[in-house]
Amino acid sequence: MQPIVTANHISKRFGKVTALDDASVSVNRGEIFGLIGPDGAGKTTLFRILATLSLADAGEASVAGFDVVRDYREIRRRIGYMPGRFSLYTDLSVEENLQFFATVFNTTVEENYHQIRDIYVQLEPFRHRRAGALSGGMKQKLALCCALIHKPEILFLDEPTTGVDPVSRKEFWQMLRHLREEGITIVVSTPFMDEARRCDRIAFINDGHILDTDVPEAVLLRHKDILCPPGLQHAATGNDSDNIITVDNLVKRFGSFTAVDHISFTVRRGEIFGFLGANGAGKTTAMRILSGLSLPSEGHAEVMGYDVTTQSEEIKRRIGYMSQRFSLYEDLKVWENVRLFAGIYGVPEKEIAPRTEEMLREIGLYDRRDTLVRNLPLGWKQRLAFSVAIFHRPQLVFLDEPTGGVDPATRRQFWELIYRAAERGITVFVTTHYMDEAEYCDRISMMVDGRIRALDSPERLKARFQAKDMDEVFLRLAREATRQSD
Amino acid sequence: MTLRYLIEKEFRQIMRNSFLPRLIFIFPCFIMLIVPWAATLEIEDLRIAVIDNDRSPKSRRLTHRIENSAYFQLTRLPDSYDDGLDAIERDRADILLEIPRGFEKHLVKGEEAPVLVAVNTVNGTKGMIGSSYLSQILTPQGEDVSIRYRFNPHLDYKVFMVPALMTMLLVMLCGFLPALNIVSEKEIGTIEQINVTPVSRFTFILGKLLPYWLMGFIVLNICIGIARFAYGLWPVGNLLTIYLSTMIFTLVVSGLGLIISNYSATMQQAMFVMWFFILIFILLSGLFTPISSMPQWAQYITYINPLRYFMEITRMVYLKGSGIADILPQLGVMSGFAATAYTLAILSYCKQQ
């Protein structure tokens, strides 16, 4: 097979930061080629160079036989590029987005409809809906349609499934397999190892270097310390008799849409409670009510004995919260962020400095305390955000998809922090899309269509559904979803 | 004190911004040094045509006086009114003065000597001001009126503009920046992290307000400095009076900015809504056109315009030397506005949806 994409000794720097250093890859025609590596490794930079959006400082690259510098027009006609974010117009409807991208490439939706039909049938019921109102999974399917509408030979997909639930991810990958059968070459980056295994070949990229290129199993085996770290062991914590959260028939409606539909559950003091569900199942909404950010429409919930409707400020004093949108101040330094939130939570001035030092040493950020948070890699930001959330020693911490978009080793480090917090007696309430993380929890609740469909320890759930892992349990339950609107 | 940490944070963010600190210095300098020279309502070199039907020594003296005036430029001496009107229509003259036959005779007899003035008022302001200049030249004929211009003896337009521009700068900087502040936290997502903390709404909004307060103070001092060194303008009244009223006024506009920020979902929205308010405030403040010449209904509207009161104060203190006692009514009203704006800013900030 002849290579359709080649990159030879590509280097690219942004100011002092080296994004790519002497990187070489070659992709064969008709394969699915995965780019695997931590956040900030240089994946997006490589995509942008291959998609002719960015110029390399050194080295050369060709796509479909054309040089990325000289023949960029030819290349742009032949590729579909799906950037990690912002590839759709959120104020246009599904149909309008598609038509717009077709027009840009001088074609029509009708002309190439067969190309996208399999994917588009799933979107068809919502074709008049604004793209911004779609769920994560649906948005990615639409973005894929838009990237495919001009019949490209090659697709460049930059983390297309980050923040997407396991069911939608499976569907998305089925589509990719299907496109591959039609002869389209796909270059895709992903933080999920199950997706890496579905590629024909993968390249492992770290710190701007391509460290290894081979079939997935070989690469994953050679770099298993980063890509497939061993699971964590943790003695179950949690006190059976003492409930820290009690939820009773909680309902939240947005207009005619019921996001949370009469849920009831309890969380025990000291346990790690996993809150799972597909995109749009209502996880974040429920979590926002419990942390006092949102008011319930009906029902009753108590956190540490305080009512979420009337005593939300009391609750806020005693909890920590880390949202899925990374939410420290990027234009403040590491220690300035710690100081700000410590101050807001009323940590005494004298204690702030010594405790900050202790905390930063613990998470290995002490040497970077004067760095602007903006310049930290995502995994470090997440660890910092978590440590800031528990800095004031709350009894309970809410984590909303805390590990989105980072590699397995980084996620594992994050979970070590969670375990350390749990050992100190902090109750952890966490949502995640990673099923291996679900196994780390003491108990799990599965939300489907705004309701809780199952709640138990991972072992018992697996036994009940006769599943070998949590992934299977999740698929079994999430496929029951009827709420297409998600 | 939570407030201290919040203010610390705001200042760090402002100082770390590559653009804001420069804006705070460059913007006032630019406006104060350039606009007073450019935006002037002084009319010079109006083209005038004089039809002298009398051709007497007195009428010739009048013509010479007009010719020597800095405001007029005698462009032609048509023979008849129709010729003169023709010159206006062809845009060769802006104003027409017809001296009737028997002008001198009337004056000698001590009677009124009527003259006719025709003005091209396509540009209304230019025409109106031109005709009033002309009547000033004509009136000394009576020789019993003597006009003294108080507080701005040379009718220098810059003296009138400089305090007004100061006000405008304060509105722009202390109004727009807070309006964009909270909404930018919304867009980035950091507001969520703040909302989930126990920080009180009162403290949070105060933490947003105080930095802009100080910024207003810096801007004011830059303006006062420029007014002194570029235009030789120093408040006739007490400087502290100006400081006090500026502090109250900045609270009003920053408060308004924060309210708008609370209700807006995007920076765009906040920007346009704020722009709408500021435009109305400026046009209905007496900055460019005197309030007394507005229609009655518009005059009523100016009563709820905080800018109006501040504009009055700066001009009164700067030019007339008014003391605290003279501006008490204005200060009172502005304090009322400030209290209202701050209260609304707190109430419109929701930590829970």
* Secondary structural class of chain B: mainly alpha
Sheet with the most strands: spatial strand order of chain B = 2-1-3-4
Question: Which fold name corresponds to the CATH topology of the largest domain in chain A?
Answer: Rossmann fold
Q: Strand count, sense and closure of the main sheet of chain B?
A: 4 strands, mixed
Q: Which strand order spans the largest sheet of chain A, edge to edge or round the barrel?
A: 6-7-8-3-9-10
Strand content of chain A: 25-35%
How many helices of chain A?
18
Number of strands of chain A: 20
Shape of chain B: elongated
- What separation lies between the terminal Cα atoms of chain A? 42 Å
Q: What order do the SSEs of chain B take from the amino end to the carboxyl end, as H and E?
A: HHEHEHEHEHHHHHHHHH
Count of domains of chain B: 2
| Oligomeric nature of the chains | heterodimer
Which stretches of chain B of 5+ consecutive residues score pLDDT under 50?
none
Shape of chain A: globular
Largest interface: A-B, 30 and 25 residues
* Rg measurement of chain A, Å: 23 Å
Describe this structure in words.
Chain A has 486 residues and is an alpha/beta fold. Chain A has 2 domains: 3-227, 3-Layer(aba) Sandwich (Rossmann fold); 243-478, P-loop containing nucleotide triphosphate hydrolases (Rossmann fold, 3-Layer(aba) Sandwich). Chain A is 35% helix and 26% strand. Chain A has helices at 43-50, 72-78, 94-104, 113-123, 136-148, 166-181, 193-196, 216-222, 224-227, 283-290, 312-318, 334-344, 349-362, 378-389, 408-423, 435-439, 458-464, 470-478; strands at residues 3-14, 17-28, 32-36, 58-63, 66-67, 79-82, 154-158, 185-189, 201-206, 209-214, 243-254, 257-268, 272-277, 298-303, 306-307, 319-322, 396-400, 427-431, 443-448, 451-456. A 6-stranded mixed beta sheet of chain A has the order 6-7-8-3-9-10, sandwiched between helices. In chain A, strands 16-17-18-13-19-20 form a 6-stranded mixed beta sheet, sandwiched between helices. With 353 residues, chain B is mainly alpha-helical. Chain B has 2 domains: 2-39 and 155-347, no CATH class; 46-141, abc type-2 transporter like fold. In chain B, 66% of the residues lie in helices and 6% in strands. Chain B is built from 14 helices and 4 strands. Chain B has helices at 2-16, 20-38, 57-68, 81-89, 103-108, 124-138, 157-188, 190-195, 201-231, 239-263, 267-283, 296-302, 306-320, 324-347; strands spanning 46-52, 72-76, 95-99, 116-119. In chain B, helix 3 links the parallel strand 1 and strand 2 (72-76). In chain B, helix 7 packs parallel to helix 10. Chain B is elongated. The two termini of chain B are 27 Å apart. In chain B, 37% of the residues are buried. The mean pLDDT of chain B is 85. The chains are: A alpha/beta (486), B mainly alpha (353). The interface between A and B is medium-sized, with 30 and 25 residues.
